[in-house]
Design brief:
Length: about 350
Amino acid sequence: MQVYTASVIGGGMGGRLSMNALVVSPRFRLIAMADLRADVRKHLYEMNPNIKLYASHKDLFADCPTDVVCVSTFPPSHREVTLDALKLNLAGILCEKPLGDTAAAGRAILSAVKMRGLPMAVPHGLLKLKHSEEIIARVRGGELGELELVEIECNKWDIINAGIHWLNFFVNLVPDDPAAWVMSLSESSTRTYRDGMQVETTAVTYVQTVGGVRLVMHTGDAVQIRRANKDFIFRLVGTRGVIEFYAFEGVYLLTNQQYPNGQVFTPEPYSASPHQRHLEAMIDQAESGKLDYSIPESSLAALELVEAAYISSAHRCKVTLPLEQFVPPAEPQWLPGQPYSGSGGGRDGRKL
Ligand SMILES: NC(=O)c1ccc[n+]([C@@H]2O[C@H](COP(=O)([O-])OP(=O)(O)OC[C@H]3O[C@@H](n4cnc5c(N)ncnc54)[C@H](O)[C@@H]3O)[C@@H](O)[C@H]2O)c1
């Protein structure tokens, strides 16, 4: 079995998930990491005294090129670091979600990786955990009838940093039914920033697919969750059943014709972490030559929904997809909720 050398750029929470996965997997040998911060490098050294540490990705790539690179910096630098990594003689690349700080950056990254013909991992945890894999299979297999509504409550996190995982999960529930439009309102009263991005204090995001499936997602610093001790709830509502679950927690409740009183499922989790499973699936692709970009593509589709939500809020408009073709319209001089003067044009809403 070939063992692939690996490096990780960014030694924070995301980078450590890759670091731990590379250390325990027999298929990789972690040999180097880079982080801008000396205190983070010191901590990385204490955890892994045998790896080389660098203050920048450029120094690492010049001095210690590896077969696999994990890009785990903040979203605004994913494009630069990934494009620099692609100059190396790689077997595969991992780029953290969100692929970039904008959909354009995500698109540039994905198309550059495809041009190089390299396998790519984008480690959305819900796509590699046992319970969420089962949920996707049940929904796609029709156990809820036709999926009509996905409702998500997400406390303490925002649309771009955690919401992208949830939007990606939604995209994977309805893989043949792309989003048609997005409307969203973000308020910024606390001026919250997270992972190098300005984010909402509270937001509500609404997505409708071409086929009419709805997603409603409530995100922000203080979202009331209607279950004790939970920070996330997902409700998947179909014509003949409902699934409730709690993001990364390995349990779900299924209510349908077969389980009319609701059945709790707690499937045996995989022994390997989602990052390890993503990385090993990537290297399987490198070895077989059968490249599968469905996860990176679904991550890009989710990033488009993220950006569409923020554009919708900033411009008070409905954002139609694909995003590349969307130009925000001028704001109409019309305030819903105000009395109509009887003149000044408009559309007579009684003509139904
Ligand atoms: N897939 C997941 O489950 C998961 C979980 C956590 C974070 N993430 C992702 O990981 C990425 C990083 O987030 P985080 O939570 O680790 O943030 P973090 O603040 O914990 O760590 C980021 C680290 O990257 C370093 N850094 C930033 N820019 C750099 C650069 N250009 N070169 C080298 N080092 C750089 C910072 O100094 C910091 O130590 C984000 O894209 C985030 O969304 C993914």
